[in-house]
From TrEMBL:
Belongs to the LysR transcriptional regulatory family. Keywords: DNA-binding, Transcription, Transcription regulation. One of its GO terms (molecular function) is DNA-binding transcription factor activity. It holds the Pfam family LysR_substrate. Residues 1-58 form the HTH lysR-type domain. Signal peptide: none annotated. This is LysR family transcriptional regulator YnfL. It comes from Methylophaga thiooxydans. One of its GO terms (cellular component) is cytosol.
Length: 294
């Protein structure tokens, strides 16, 4: 049984006439009669009784008509849903983003996306870079905004660069005088603030500290950028962070200093799975990201 059998059957049932139904369906009457006969043979029942030049549904035909209409309505709904998914006007979108991206850009991104695509269920998750990559590979995320260093990333992903950022030594204005001493491996009174172990940023900074013999005077661990910057601004602390992080504070009390020697730049960009069909909603979201962040 195929969908055309049901469509042909419903047309005959509605018009109660094979010739009129054939004209509507743009097929010959013998071809239509053959299709109805195939359906009757498959169901092992007579679907119509002849009445003069027309036909009327049999008792079995009444039952089949009710179910056939439901099936064809469901198929129409399915086609509409798929078309909406393909056009990016319906469905869900799961996005993984870095903490700094979430803080600086996601309010604007979400507001603009929801205005343009109100029927998309947008789920935006703040994740560590390694968790963004894992989520994309495992199929839990559709797209990610993360970073790479020296183009070292999962081969199952494609990466599109949005912008590059330098790493900076971060102090408060009042403690800016200690920056040169910190970078020259001299003694200083400031305590270092870092992300906890498990953050890629922590491993990068620890390696830099070790390689350049920077004195840390113990370490405070905080898992939020805003908390790290608050402590640097209001306490006697310093940190080494990507430049973008410092932009979260806009009151002018944070001071950024160039690293000597420099760390490799962080490349911020879009991650996509290489072996997966790209939904239209993903393309629409990425276009908005490029417009806002590039």
């Amino acid at each position: 049984m195929e969908l055309r059998h049901l469509r042909y059957f419903c047309a005959v049932a509605e018009l109660e006439h094979f010739h009129k139904a054939a004209e509507r369906l743009c097929i010959t009457q013998p071809a239509l009669s053959n299709q109805i006969k195939q359906l009757e043979n498959e169901l092992s029942t007579k679907l119509f009784h002849r009445v003069g030049r027309g036909v009327r549904l049999s008792e079995s035909g009444e039952i089949v008509l009710s179910t056939a209409k439901k099936i064809l309505n469901e198929v129409t709904h399915l086609q509409q849903t798929v078309n909406e998914l393909e056009s990016g006007s319906r469905g869900s979108l799961n996005v993984g983003v870095l903490q700094s991206i979430n803080t600086l850009y996601c309010r604007q991104l979400v507001t603009a996306f929801d205005k343009l695509h109100p029927n998309i269920n947008l789920n935006l998750l703040e994740l560590a870079n390694k968790d963004i990559e894992a989520g994309l590979i495992q199929g839990n995320l559709d797209v990610g905004i993360g970073f790479i260093l020296n183009k070292n990333y999962n081969p199952g992903l494609n990466f599109e660069l949005l912008f590059k950022e330098d790493w900076k030594l971060i102090t408060s204005q009042k403690n800016a005088e200690f920056s040169s001493g910190i970078l020259n491996s001299s003694s200083h009174p400031l305590k270092m603030v870092l992300f906890p172990h498990g953050f890629e940023t922590r491993a990068i900074v620890e390696n830099y500290i070790s390689s350049n013999q920077i004195k840390t005077n113990n370490i405070t661990e905080l898992n939020k950028i805003s908390l790290i910057l608050d402590l640097v601004e209001n306490g006697n602390s310093f940190s080494i962070l990507p430049e973008l992080f410092a932009k979260i504070h806009t009151n002018g009390q944070i001071r950024m200093h160039d690293l000597v020697p420099k760390l490799p730049q962080r490349n911020i960009g879009l991650f996509f799975p290489t072996q997966r069909y790209t939904k239209r909603s993903v393309s629409n979201f990425c276009s908005l990201v490029r417009e806002i962040m590039s």
